[in-house]
Structure formats: structure tokens, C-alpha cells
């Protein structure tokens, strides 16, 4: 597709299209062998091009992305699986563009707090004006976890207060509690916001440092300034949420004779109790507000079994990124080549392999281009709560979020392989592609399991995984892969520098695509759905999902 034809795409391409049936004649290996490099390169180049303007939701680039993926599904002959016989599942959202001010009530801070440089904040309500004037209460990690015998709140009434808390969980410093350095959901900012709302708080400030957050302040600034998108949901007590740098938080607390370093040390102990800081903050956030609709894009390869074809396996990847933002070194387009044009391109290459192979497994496979991942997994949350079939009929979600553009590896990993019987199928698919499984301790410490779209399905009780990369790169010295990932995380992740670099190659992505194609076939053609492992934290909701 060329630049001229791109401009003609619109949501009107989300129309019905027939699927040409072909006789299945080969096992999963045939599907994997049909994965083509050009079927991956082409969408990767298109979706990461400046023409798509960083694929911002509700923007021209986002609409182009939806239309492009829908047209690819139609061209492949996949059936529409969205709303009203189209490829699009509409997702209603609210867009807010916050302009916050933060001040100390009754006095000046040790230094002026600068929006973007010292803090970011956004409205948690769909209102053009939200305000909070309240005392700040430091609540440690802000976690209540019965299974870990941990309670940072200790019954303290924090209704109407502004909570200051740490990111991550106590295991980051003490390996004998929680999962050690492997982040739990309690350490994610999403949980902390949810818990603050359950406690009736008026606001929330997360203290940022690089090691606890596992990413730098630039990532926070680029992710949480400018337009913020969320599902249109009823309001809670929470007026706002935000991040504050460790140095700014130190200055704020020092003005009330408190030492942040001492508070952090205390927060790592089970006996910690909330600290009323005596610091009163006044936060005002004015936002332009608009309600809009974005879309997940769904194309179905129907199953062949009369009894099982109404069950589905999702193969998903999120198309959205951050659009156009503040210029960095003269570049304002956050193209998101690795995150996640690579995942969408890999998903499309797998869909292409299935349709060209002529194979149909027992269950249907629905390929999904997901929206709003960067806004907090909102598109997948909507799909998990509004699936095109009953949730009990969703066998699995096999997700692709950032695939390997650095080169071929001898190993591969997956988020969630230890949670369900999908892990055994993943092992078999990996062996078939002559790869070994690598346990990614860095991904675990970064809480990556809770930061990709498969997590929305896990919360709904659906076994789910996201493919990961390897570390042992062919033709590269030991440690090279880790070094490249660290450079990407520091210099390009969620920044305008995430472009399609000249040295990138799809050889690694093709390896992942072949493994995922085998896995999709094995799950879709199995006699029974995957099951959660007995010790998984999702086993109970999984049983509820299927009525057992």
C-alpha cells in the first residue's frame, strides 16, 4: 500500500467480507511454515510510518490504523467478527486533556513544582474541572493483601485524603515477601489507583524513581501528559491521580520535617502504619473533554468442528500508541515501531499464514487489533467484558506485544507460561521450532505480566499469555540482547525515538510468529480448553468462568 492510498482509508472499510474455504490438509507445522517475512515487513513499515502519526486513539492516525487492519483482514478473507457484521468492535471512551496546577495550601513549597518536570496529574473523573484540597497521607506501598499478610492501611480512614505512595511492592527489597523482585499486581499503578478509590480517597500521587518504577521519568512524562483516554465509566471518590518525582516529593515532605528516605525504609516493614504528613495540597485540573469511539478490529477464521466452532481463541496485538506529543530532538511523532507496530505486524503475518495454509482447526480463531492498550489495557478490558461469544467460550488469548526486531535467537520466553496448561503447549511449540525456553527475570521484576492485554483476559478467567523475546542472540556476544533492551527501554520506549531503525530485522519476530502459530493451532484444535494451574491466582475466577 502506498501513501496515496493510505489517505483514503476510513472506518467505512469495516464492512462484511466472505471467507473462501480451503480444504485443510496439514498439521500445525504447515501453518508455521507458511509465515512469510514480507507479510510481516509490510505492515510493520506501514504502521510505523509518519503518515500514521503515532497511531493515537481518536486521531487520524488511529482511524487509519483501524481501517488498515480491517482491510488486511478483508483481503485475507477473514470473516468480520465485530459489531453488526463489521470488522470493528466500537469502544466508547472519554478523552481528557489535562492542565493541572498543584500548590501547597497555606505556604510555599521548598521549590516551585513544575508540571511535566516534577509531577504529572490527570483527572480521574470525566469532568472539565476537578479539585482536591486535602491533607497528604503517606501510605507506604498502598497495598492490602490478605494472602501476603500485608496491610499498609491498618484500618486508617483515608476518605477525602490525598494519598502519597510508592510504586512496586515490598518484595523489591526483601526477597522473602511477595514474589521478591518479580512484581505482583499489587505493585502496579493500576491496582494502587483502584485501591485508593475503594478507600474513598480524593487523590493519589505515586512517588517515582527509576528502580521502583522500572522505567525513567521520560516514560512517565510521555505517557501521562497530553490527551488521556479512558472507558466511559461512573465516577468514584477519586478526583485525580498523578506521579511526582522522588526529588520533588523529598522537598515537599522536608517542608513538614519528614524524611522521604526514612519513610521508604519504614514502608518495607510489615508493621508500617500510614503517616499523616501535615502537608496540605491544593490540586486543580482543568480538562478539555470529549466523548468518542475507538475500535478493536476483529477478523474470524471459522472452526471446522460443528460442536466447537462457536468457541474461539484470540490472537491479539494492540495497534495504538501515543500519537503526536512534545518534540524531542525535533521529532514529535511517537511512531511506536517496536511498541507495538511489531506485534500487529506479527499478528497479521500469523493470520496470513493460517488463511494461505487452508487449515481450519476445530475452534474458531479471532485475530484482534486491540485499541487503548497504552491507556491502561482499556481495549482488551472492553473485549473481555463484551466478547463476541460468551466468555465461557473464549478458550484463550495469545497476545503479541513487542516482538523481536533485534535478530534471531536460540531462545524465547512468554509471560504467563507458568499460569496455565498453555505453558505445556508453549513448550511443545518451542521445541518444534528448535528453540529453548528462557525465563525472563527482568520481565518478571518489571511486572510485565500485568502490563499487556492478555492480563484483561486473565482477570476474566481466560488462560492467556504474551510472547516474549530471548537473550541468546545468534552471532552476538553474551549480554548483547540485555544491553539492547536496556537501551531501548531508556532511550526509545514511549518516546519519539521508537522508529523503525535501519538495522532492525524481522528474523526474531518470524521465530516468535511460528511458535505462536503452532500454539494457536494446538489450542484451537484441542479436545478441551486450556485450564489454570491449581496454584494460579486466576484459578478461582477461571472456574467461575466455565461454571465449575
Short overview:
This protein has 548 residues and is an alpha/beta fold.
General shape: globular
- Largest sheet geometry: 15 strands, mixed
CATH fold node name of the largest domain = Aminopeptidase
Indicate the proportion of strand residues.
15-25%
The CATH top-level class label of the largest domain:
Alpha Beta
Task: Kindly describe this structure.
- The structure is a single chain.
- This protein has 548 residues and is α/β, with parallel strands linked by helices.
- The protein has two domains: 78-93 and 293-546, 3-Layer(aba) Sandwich (Aminopeptidase); 94-289, Glucose Oxidase, domain 1.
- It has 17 helices and 19 strands.
- It has helices at residues 3-6, 28-33, 38-47, 60-76, 189-198, 210-213, 217-224, 246-254, 260-267, 337-357, 378-385, 422-432, 441-445, 454-459, 480-491, 507-525, 539-546, and strands at residues 79-80, 88-104, 119-123, 129-138, 144-145, 150-151, 162-166, 203-208, 228-231, 240-245, 275-301, 312-318, 324-328, 331-333, 364-370, 394-399, 411-415, 436-437, 464-468.
- The strands form three sheets. The chain has a 15-stranded mixed beta sheet that branches.
- Helix 12 (422-432) links the parallel strand 17 and strand 18.
- The N and C termini lie far apart (49 Å).
- Mean pLDDT is 91; it is low at 1-25.
Amino acid at each position: 500500500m502506498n501513501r496515496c492510498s493510505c489517505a483514503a482509508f476510513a472506518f467505512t472499510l469495516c464492512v462484511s467480507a466472505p471467507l473462501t474455504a480451503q480444504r485443510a490438509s496439514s498439521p500445525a507445522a504447515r501453518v508455521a511454515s507458511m509465515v512469510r517475512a514480507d507479510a510481516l515487513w509490510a505492515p510493520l513499515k506501514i504502521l510505523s510510518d509518519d503518515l500514521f502519526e503515532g497511531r493515537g486513539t481518536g486521531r487520524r492516525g488511529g482511524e487509519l490504523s483501524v481501517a488498515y487492519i480491517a482491510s488486511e483482514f478483508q483481503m485475507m478473507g477473514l470473516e468480520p467478527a465485530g459489531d453488526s457484521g463489521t470488522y470493528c468492535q466500537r469502544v466508547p471512551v472519554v478523552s481528557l486533556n489535562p492542565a493541572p496546577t498543584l500548590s501547597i495550601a497555606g505556604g510555599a513549597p521548598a521549590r516551585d513544582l513544575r508540571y511535566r518536570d516534577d509531577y504529572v496529574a490527570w483527572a480521574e473523573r470525566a469532568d472539565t474541572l476537578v479539585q482536591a484540597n486535602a491533607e497528604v497521607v503517606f501510605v507506604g506501598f498502598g497495598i492490602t493483601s490478605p494472602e501476603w499478610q500485608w496491610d499498609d492501611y491498618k484500618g486508617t480512614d483515608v476518605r477525602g485524603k490525598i494519598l502519597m505512595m510508592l510504586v512496586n511492592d515490598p518484595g523489591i527489597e526483601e526477597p522473602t515477601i511477595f514474589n521478591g523482585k518479580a512484581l505482583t499486581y499489587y505493585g502496579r499503578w493500576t491496582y494502587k489507583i483502584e485501591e485508593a478509590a475503594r478507600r474513598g480517597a480524593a487523590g493519589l500521587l505515586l512517588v517515582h524513581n527509576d528502580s521502583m518504577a522500572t522505567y525513567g521519568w521520560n516514560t512517565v512524562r510521555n505517557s501521562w501528559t497530553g490527551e488521556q483516554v479512558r472507558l466511559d465509566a461512573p465516577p468514584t471518590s477519586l478526583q485525580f491521580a498523578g506521579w511526582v518525582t522522588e526529588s520533588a516529593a523529598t522537598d515537599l515532605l522536608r517542608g513538614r520535617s519528614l524524611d522521604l528516605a526514612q519513610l521508604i525504609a519504614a514502608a518495607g516493614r510489615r508493621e508500617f502504619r500510614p503517616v499523616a504528613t501535615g502537608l496540605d495540597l491544593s490540586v486543580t485540573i482543568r480538562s478539555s473533554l470529549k466523548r468518542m469511539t475507538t475500535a478493536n478490529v476483529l477478523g474470524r477464521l471459522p472452526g471446522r468442528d460443528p460442536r466447537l466452532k462457536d468457541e474461539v481463541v484470540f490472537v491479539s496485538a494492540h495497534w495504538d500508541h501515543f500519537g503526536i506529543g512534545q518534540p524531542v530532538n525535533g521529532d514529535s511523532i511517537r511512531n511506536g515501531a517496536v511498541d507495538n507496530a511489531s506485534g500487529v505486524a506479527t499478528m497479521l503475518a500469523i493470520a496470513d499464514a493460517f488463511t494461505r495454509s487452508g487449515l481450519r482447526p476445530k475452534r474458531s480463531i479471532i485475530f484482534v487489533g486491540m485499541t487503548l492498550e497504552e491507556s491502561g489495557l482499556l481495549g482488551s478490558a472492553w473485549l473481555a467484558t463484551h466478547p463476541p461469544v460468551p466468555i465461557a467460550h473464549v478458550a484463550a488469548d495469545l497476545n503479541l506485544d513487542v516482538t523481536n526486531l533485534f535478530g534471531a535467537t536460540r531462545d524465547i520466553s512468554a509471560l504467563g507460561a507458568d499460569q496455565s496448561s498453555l505453558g505445556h503447549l508453549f513448550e511443545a511449540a518451542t521445541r518444534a521450532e528448535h528453540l529453548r525456553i528462557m525465563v525472563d527475570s527482568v520481565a518478571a521484576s518489571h511486572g510485565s505480566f500485568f502490563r499487556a492485554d492478555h492480563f484483561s483476559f486473565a482477570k476474566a478467567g481466560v488462560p492467556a499469555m504474551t510472547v516474549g523475546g530471548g537473550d541468546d542472540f545468534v552471532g552476538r556476544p553474551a549480554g548483547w540482547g540485555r544491553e539492547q533492551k536496556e537501551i531501548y527501554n531508556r532511550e526509545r520506549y514511549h518516546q519519539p525515538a521508537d522508529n523503525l531503525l535501519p538495522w532492525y530485522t524481522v528474523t526474531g519476530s518470524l521465530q516468535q510468529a511460528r511458535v505462536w502459530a503452532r500454539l494457536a493451532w494446538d489450542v484451537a484444535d484441542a479436545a478441551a480448553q486450556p485450564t489454570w494451574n491449581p496454584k494460579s491466582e486466576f484459578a478461582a475466577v477461571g472456574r467461575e468462568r466455565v461454571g465449575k
